[in-house]
Amino acid sequence: MSKFVSVVAGALVTTVLVAGCSSPDEGADARAQSAIDVSVTLDEENGTIVLPYDRFIPDRVDASLLQTAQQVVATLCAREQGVGFMTGRFVEIPTYRSEPFYGPWTLAQAERYGFVSPFLTDADLRANGIVPEDYGSPSLLNNAEVAAVNEKLTDEDRAVVEECYRSPERAEFTVKGGGGPWDDELRQAEEPILAGETLTEPLDELYACYRERGLEPDTARPGLVVGADPGRIDEEQVALAVQTVECKQETDFTRRVADALAAAQAEVLLDYADEVVAQGEELQRALDAAQRYVAAHPEAFEPPA
């Protein structure tokens, strides 16, 4: 039985036993443990890998929503004081949920980005100088309009805005995003796996596949090959990236490593089940509140009257 399966089975057995004869505190612990999903989700269509702890912390889209809500608070506060501040509108961009895993792990990522971070939009790629100015689709955000409005602010206006960013109302849209003792324990559990120190077989098989294709593994960057450039997209980089993804698929590399990480996370999370579940609930409350608040104030995303 694998370590991953052992952890899951252990959690289920604990829940059954506690339900039979337990103190109220133990029963609460069991309920919290049962609320922790220790499985892995590999979403190839969106390029997203969801490990157990990911379900309790904000991703890039969540963080963007929370930040937008905080900016709306500051915008409305400033306008009440006669300062024509404006904030950028929130757009849920699925690309921001895509992520690398030892480099690209889906063919779609490899074919579009090569070895460049797959969570960058076309506008992000242009802004970072990775592609020409005429590359891809226009931005869905209104950043240029926002900049044109806010650059007219005086120093006194900016002082008002800064003070508005300290508004207590922003607290409703602020989450800790960690900070408990489990964070350090998670890092300690994950680092040897991510570095290829304790889970050597998947990397060995991946590297063997690379060599069969005439590629040289870059041992300083686990999972990558010599010549991989995270700052360039061209035909050569795309071809190289596609070969690495094909090897990951042939060896089931992504699934095996993700399962190992999930098992390592589960051992930690189940020890802090109450706290971690509470953190996830706090995050969800903040996201729900931010969604409502942003939807209720479309005027913050328009130039001041």
UniProtKB/TrEMBL annotation:
Superkingdom, taxonomy of origin: Bacteria
Highest classification ranks of the organism: Bacteria, Bacillati, Actinomycetota, Actinomycetes, Micrococcales
Protein name: Lipoprotein
